[in-house]
Design a protein that fits this description.
Elements (H helix, E strand, L loop, with lengths): L1 H15 L24 H12 L3 H12 L5 H14 L3 H13 L7 E3 L5 E5 L1 H5 L17 H11 L9 E3 L2 E6 L1 H16 L3 E13 H7 L11 E3 L1 H13 L3 E5 L2 E4 L4 E19 L2 E21 L5 E12 L4 E5 L9 E5 L2 E12 L4 E6 L5 E13 H6 L3
Antiparallel strand pairs: 1-2, 2-4, 3-4, 5-7, 5-8, 5-16, 6-15, 9-10, 10-11, 11-14, 12-13, 15-16
Helix pairs in contact: 2-3, 2-5, 3-4, 4-5
Length: about 400
């Protein structure tokens, strides 16, 4: 009882101290500065446990975190997570480890959970290319995140872990035995040694009628299928329809070449300008012109698997703007000023993200269901090419 009172007294003192650099102000236990309130969840949970329970392990863990310097904060969270895990508080441990990843740990931290299982933190993008720290921000907002790709890839590689890997901002924390850690690192080591290999992807954006797709034997609705493999014969039938000018229309067919794991994007959009508002200055009303996208954006990320297959991630956003744009008449309240018209676009958006494995040179069709009679679709073809072929423009 005396020990618990002394701990509470110490926490009270910490909570009432004047603010210091790197710490929050009075009324709270002094946490290291965090970007958002959401990031303090693990510390809040720890604080409540200490106040509620006479648990020396949790108390020591909390005080260790409070004493951590900025540069060592990630390592402190990793160590605290281990203590929570060994104390049987797995969810708290995972929350602390997630906070550790948010602190961007330096190097490749490793912590032993027992004689067999160790926790290691990896940044896959730099395991392939040491200079690839900053990746472009995805354009589609279709959940085509690097973190989702990492989890899907771990599942594809059949890496056996003690619990589900924790991912954040391109970092992954894996708890596994040495054999599975070696399996994971070996895959990326092989990928990094293939400096001459690049992933080529060609995408065909299609605007195809319902009748046309039925003729090709390709499913229309995403309720039926996420994607289908296209045979050469089916693709040829689509080409023939395009050339005959009947049922299908190729909106675009861009070709991209990217480094393994690198994010690449293509788009086929029409930017529609409209008057969204008016700015009034010195009694003069100036129109504010905004734009809205009408069309399709696709993003791709791929990496070669053993045996020459490609593991890929594709995210697609289809935006349809209802035409004509709705017009609204408004009174600006200016003297001797006539009413003006503003426009408010109505946009229907379809978003998907798929992970799949395909052989080099194979084709997939990803259907997108439109609100109109027309159905949109995306054909994806991937290949592994050499950098020399790309530079020299060889087919």
């Amino acid at each position: 009882m005396i020990k618990l009172l002394s701990v509470l007294a110490m926490l009270t003192i910490l909570g009432c101290r004047a603010p210091e650099p790197g710490f929050a102000g009075p009324g709270r236990i002094l946490y290291p500065e965090r970007e958002t309130a959401e990031e303090t969840s693990a510390l809040d949970e720890l604080r409540e446990m200490v106040l509620r329970e006479d648990d020396a392990e949790m108390t020591g863990m909390l005080l260790d975190l409070l004493r951590a310097e900025t540069d060592g904060r990630a390592e402190a969270y990793l160590a605290a997570g281990k203590r929570a895990y060994l104390a049987g508080r797995e969810e708290l441990a995972k929350s602390l480890w997630k906070d550790a990843l948010d602190c961007e740990p330096r190097g490749a931290p490793e912590i032993a959970l027992d004689d067999e299982v160790t926790i290691r933190v990896y940044r896959p993008r730099t395991m392939i290319r040491a200079d690839a720290r900053d990746f472009p921000t995805p354009l589609t907002n279709a959940q085509i995140s690097e973190d989702a790709f990492i989890l899907a890839l771990i599942d594809e590689l059949e890496i056996e872990t003690t619990f589900e890997p924790i991912v954040s901002n391109g970092l992954v924390l894996i708890a596994a035995d040495p054999e599975n850690h070696d399996k994971f690192t070996g895959f990326f080591r092989n990928a990094s040694e293939s400096d001459d290999s690049m992933v080529e992807v060609q995408m065909w954006f299609l605007d195809v009628t319902e009748r046309g797709l039925d003729d090709f034997g390709i499913p229309l609705s995403r309720k039926q299928v996420d994607y289908v493999t296209l045979s050469e014969d089916e693709f040829q039938r689509i080409l023939d329809a395009e050339n005959s000018g009947n049922e299908s229309i190729f909106l675009s067919s861009p070709r991209l070449v990217a480094f393994p794991y690198q994010l690449a994007s293509v788009s086929c959009v029409n930017q529609i300008a409209y008057i969204s508002d008016y700015e009034i200055e010195s009694g003069i009303a100036d129109p504010v012109v905004d734009t809205v996208n009408d069309g399709i954006i696709a993003e791709f990320r791929g990496i070669e698997l053993s045996g020459g297959e490609i593991f890929a991630q594709v995210g697609v956003v289809l935006s349809e703007v209802r035409k004509p744009l709705a017009n609204f008449t408004v009174d600006l309240g200016l003297e001797n000023s006539a009413p003006v018209t503003i426009q408010i676009p109505e946009v229907s958006t379809t978003k998907i993200c798929e992970h799949f494995k395909m052989g080099t040179g194979n084709m997939l069709y990803i259907p997108l269901k439109s609100q109109c009679n027309v159905r949109m679709g995306l054909i994806v073809k991937t290949s592994i090419v050499s950098a020399d072929e790309t530079i020299n423009g060889e087919d």
